[in-house]
Amino acid sequence: MSDFNRRKFLEGSASVAAAATLGTGATVFAPAIHAQTLQLKPEKGAKLRVLRWSRFVQGDIDAYMANVKKFTEKTGIEVRVDNESWEDVRPKAAVAANTGAGADIILSTNDDANLYPDKLVDMTDLCDYLGKKYGGWYPACEAFLRPDGKKWIGVPLGGTGSMIVYRDSMLKAAGFNAVPRDTDGFLRMFKALKEKGTPGGMALGHATGDCGWTQWLIWAFGGALVDKNNKVTIDSPETLKALEYGKELYPNFVPGTLSWLDPNNNKAFLDSQISITNNGISIYYAAKNSQDPKIKEMAADINHAPFPVGPVGQPTEYHLFFNQMVMKYTKYPQAAKEFLRFMMEEEQFGGWMQAAGGYISQPLRAYEKNSVWTVDPKHMAYRDSVKNLRPAGYAGRLGYASAGALADFIVQDMVAEAISGSKTPKEAMERAQKRAERYYKV
Predict the structure, then answer these.
(1) 188-217 pLDDT per residue, tens
(2) Cis upstream peptide for 395 (omega within 30°)
(3) Which residue segments constitute the domains of the chain, with CATH numbers given?
(4) 3-class SS at 107?
(5) Which of 241, 258, 357, 340 is CA-nearest to residue 302?
(6) To the nearest 10°, the Cα dihedral for 385, 390, 391, 393?
(7) C-alpha angle 237-241-244 in degrees, rounded to nearest 5
(8) What's the pTM?
(9) Would you state the pLDDT for residue 4?
């Protein structure tokens, strides 16, 4: 595999904003693109049920449901949408796949599709159509959902970038005009913020999206869960260096991060308990659209930056990937494909991206031109999240083992144990090695 170079918290006037932006043309395509065709014939009397992760920005769900309504009005196909937290979608999807009952279409995260690829409808025709029409899929999309290089087991939906979110005034008060681009400077910044009484904090609990910074930490120092042959290599000198760095970083975190799930850093940041964290654009979105004048005022002080580059000398970005799976037990596979085709077309997808305010990073190259990335310069840091992301199964091949290891939070647990002092780095690495080897069986 080649080297591939988050939330419901506050809801305000975002619904109005979403309605205002939905349907406004955002991307200009060449006429030839529209020559692509795909003939799908939805089954007579089809009804669909969709299970998807809960929104963290209100504009996402408002625009998504508006598009669902458009689909029903156009096709007569009734669509029911159920929303669950990221942590709940994964087990429900697995149960559905293994029992053969549940939602027809499931929107999940990362490489969940690789846990039960034989339970999913082949989406190759649809993905080929969309790829040709919209400039092609990013490499990470293929790594996640086309693991054998031939068959697509799901349709990429995009992702949400995990970037550094910070209070500009607090950084400057600590002596930094910007987030350092190297790990040494990054550590100095966290120490300076703690000394100023404005600490940072990043999730160390089982947070599906926000604990992903632990993957960055390992990769930044040259460590990896597995090598290109899927041999487990997490117990290594490179990982040890990463954990030793983490042990210096962690004392500068606000208390409580060991139990943080995905909503916790949003709340802590908007409550001014922390000055810096890693997150999607949802914190900034919530501040801009808040009904609370104090929080709304905070938006001007929020900025974003990429993670620093470690000793490996190149970006090692980890972002949350979104997939769309059609379950093989569905009675209406053609209707399900037609629903996904409709939702991915520019007339719907472009407006959805705008309504989400930068929370959704596109999986198809043509959507780089969506105006959401230029309407506010603070959005731009998130544009290339899917383009640059490195799957959690790096540097090996994605499949059941990588999906299982990620779902089991092996890397996150190792980092939390080592940097908090509950285990020595060596003990944490050895435990992670053994846990991972249960999935990556020789």
Answers:
(1) 999 999 999 999 999 999 998 899 999 999
(2) yes
(3) 14-23+42-160+319-383 (3.40.190.10), 163-317+408-439 (3.40.190.10)
(4) strand
(5) 357
(6) -170
(7) 135
(8) 0.86
(9) 38
Residue type at 125 in one-letter notation: D
- Count of alpha carbons within 13 Å of 237, Cβ hemisphere only? 0
Instruction: Tally Cβ neighbours within 10 Å of residue 432.
Output: 25
Terminal-residue alpha carbon distance, the chain: 18
Indicate the DSSP class of residue 371: G
Looking up tokens 């093989």, which residue turns up?
Answer: 328
pLDDT digits (tens, 9 = 90+) for 2-38: 443 333 333 333 333 333 343 444 444 444 455 578 9
Distance CA 149, CA 302 (A): 41
H or E segment at 3? none
CA distances from 204 to 40, 88, 361, 385, 418 (A): 45, 18, 24, 22, 11
pLDDT in tens, 211-267: 999 999 999 999 999 999 999 999 999 999 999 999 999 999 999 999 999 999 999
Q: Which pLDDT value is given to residue 290? A: 92
Would you call 348 helix, strand, or coil by DSSP?
A: helix
In sequence order, the 6+-apart residues with CB closer than 8 A to the CB of 66 are 18, 19, 22
